[in-house]
Design a protein that fits this description.
With about 140 residues, the chain is mostly helical. The chain is built from six helices and no strands.
Length: about 140
């Protein structure tokens, strides 16, 4: 840990204060990802592990409510995947990669999107590590 930085000074998603402060920006980033990746409402809801009706409410007025620690973690992982893909591929392929069937063992002949919806946060973190490793970041 850098000198002068205390553990209690570290930002995380555990406290409601941090989540309240960061939720609007996180949701705005996620809405842009959903649009950029061309995700359906069902896919967007699935990645956040919420129902389609909850997703619609979040889009309409979600900026007023703090996201959960789980939702913040999911969005953080997805933003990292987005950044990694855009470092690895040209824009079109970077945005399409998640919707292409992948024969790699991590994806079991499904799309990365479907694998992350099914596998939740652990799979999202694995996909992020995979993208970082492919681009030489690990």
């Amino acid at each position: 840990m850098p000198e002068g930085l205390l553990l209690q000074d570290r930002q995380d998603f555990a406290t409601e204060t941090d989540r309240a402060r960061l939720s609007a920006v996180a949701l705005k980033a996620y809405l842009r990802l959903v649009d950029q990746w061309g995700l359906s409402g069902q896919q967007a809801a699935g990645l956040l592990d919420v129902s389609s009706s909850t997703w619609e409410r979040m889009k309409a007025r979600g900026k007023d409510r703090p996201l959960s620690q789980d939702q913040m973690t999911r969005i953080s992982a997805l933003v990292g995947i987005y950044k990694g893909l855009h470092l690895l591929f040209a824009d079109g392929m970077a945005d399409d990669w998640l919707k292409l069937v992948n024969s790699g063992p991590l994806f079991a002949r499904t799309t990365p999107i479907d694998s992350m919806i099914r596998g939740g946060i652990p799979q999202m973190l694995e996909v992020r590590r995979y993208v970082d490793a492919v681009r030489g970041g690990l």
